[in-house]
Amino acid sequence: MSATESNESARSADRRGAAPPHVDAQQSRAVAEAAREREWQKPSFARGLYLGRFDLSLIHPHPRSDPGRVERGDAFLAGLESFLRTVDAPRIEREARIPDEVFEGLAELGAFGMKIPVEYGGLGLGQYHYNRALVLIGSVNASLGALLSSHQSVGVPEPLKLAGTDAQKRRYLPRCARGAISAFLLTEPEVGSDPARLRATAVPTEDGAAYVLDGTKLWTTNGPVAELLVVMARVPKSDGHPGGISAFVVEADDPGITVHRRNAFMGLRGIENGLTTLRGVRVPRENLIGREGQGLKIALTTLNAGRLAIPAICAGTAKWSLKIAREWSQARVQWGHPIGGHAAVAHKVAFIAATTFALEAVVDLSGVLADEDRKDIRIEAALAKMWASEMGWRIADELVQIRGGRGFETAASLAARGERAVAAEQVLRDMRINRIFEGSTEIMRLLIAREAVDAHLTAAGDLIDPKLDLAAKVRAAASASGFYARWLPQLVAGAGDLPAAYGEFGALAPHLRYVERTSRKLARETFYGMARWQGALEHRQGFLARVVDIGAELFAVSASCVRAAMIAADAPEHAKSAFQLADTFAAQSRHRTERLLDELWRNTDADDERLAERVLDGRYAWLEQGIVDPSEGTGPWITEEIPDDAMEDVHRRVIRLIDEP
Description:
The structure is a single chain. The chain is α+β, with helices and mostly antiparallel strands and about 650 residues long. The protein is built from 24 helices and 10 strands. The chain has helices at about 5-15, 25-35, 45-50, 65-85, 90-95, 100-110, 125-140, 140-155, 155-165, 165-180, 295-305, 310-330, 345-370, 380-405, 405-410, 410-415, 425-430, 440-450, 455-460, 470-485, 510-535, 540-570, 575-600, 605-615; strands at about 180-185, 200-205, 210-220, 230-235, 245-250, 255-260, 275-285, 290, 335, 335-340. It has a 4-stranded mixed β-sheet with strand order 1-4-5-8. Strands 2-3-7-6 form a 4-stranded antiparallel β-sheet. Helix 7 runs parallel beside helix 12 (about 310-330), helix 8 (about 140-155) runs antiparallel to helix 12 (about 310-330) and helix 14 runs antiparallel to helix 18. It is globular and about 70 Å long.
């Protein structure tokens, strides 16, 4: 091969987007570690739970929204509710598409600029009212929630608010507020939660005036209808360019961008989600968000509050599910009684009601904490996303069970038979993605666990580094012993051991005492795990997952009790019912927590992992005999590079009523 041919081959590889060579586990971890926030400059209630420090003063009395934002937010919510009552939700499900007039109506309301500051043409709402809007939307159609949250939580507005230049904000935020839909392009066919394998490239031009983007992006929510994109791509390291994964604002109709298809899913039938390629897309240097190599850090910082969109949507669906469960359980009679009077159904109704109260408590508390900006909520937001998506799915599943055969039947079929068109099966399908969106439950547990054990890793330091010699480990042990000598005695006793502690919470005080005691116990158990496995603790994913889940339950109980106290102060007529809901939820949560604590040390993790290894080795392939696999021969597990002529561009514009300046 000649030098010319070799250079051309290299340029072609850049255009295709080449995977970094030999990306191993250590490199992947290094990329993730470089992107995470290392400092804790603000207090965090949830972080304290994992360290055995139950500081209720961080969330009680329940924080309040700014009065100015309340007035603007309440006015917007009133208009949004009126508009949503005109939306034909069954049509979205039937046609698998949000009608253009719904896009336009949302734009006229200002829904695409809810969180954009007023000076840039937005509504300037805080996270609390943004969450309340998504609660409303989640009760009507989850695809609408996906549209708006993808646009504002991870699309162009939030990254620019956090890291954009003044010029970028002036140029793009007003457009976004008027209805220029945005999308976030990170995931690739071979890249999910492991960004170290990112293939998309952004090669600087020789004059340094621009970057040329090449790559393939998968599951680009809003991609088929977007005007603006946030694209994550790898800048090669070179003279004057530190390189690394970087973020760019890109015009969706720039030459070289093709949306090859609109993907379809088991739920969210109205979602606009595509498969997009970038081929030689020239992006001005001024469109780089932040600095080169800061793309993942910007994305993770954006998600600190952005993840709260999913809990809000889950809360809206849960509230709707509660309403349907209550009305149906009163109306449906079997064996001489409404089915809600039978214990088997009553238990499900109680779970839905109590958990819905807790979901709303977690969403509202996290939203106001985000607005205050006086606390570090990265763990709170991650816990809210993980816990709400799991509980929201369980609520939807229980609703289908309560409805029986009618829960499995579609709303359209019910309506055709003359019955109320309750879309329980649709809700189940729509809710399922929330356990995967913006970090699957499994990935979220790992991310939260990393933060939960950060104090131990920092204290232990070189002690758990297998590469260091004995002398270095002796010095590290001396350093670690100082931390643990101060920290461990604090876990022996606390307010949870005092019968009168948290007395201002009345009947809920025992639950808060339990949270305080369990927080200290959880910290001790984590220390035992660290002492037993040391650096190998990160591989004990079953143990870490249970640690995280226990903290999530403690956070939800705390939020529920604080919310009940706030309701009692603001609306005394609802005090009794709020306390009853919080009390029942806390009791249910305690049973889950006790089971998780027991399973920290008594479980089948080792057996499960050995069996899985044997399964993957093919030792039990005989167990698969006697079936037919219709998927065989239909294509590879992961697609290769997409040909240029794979499909016509399906990108389209949906908002036409908003005039350009």
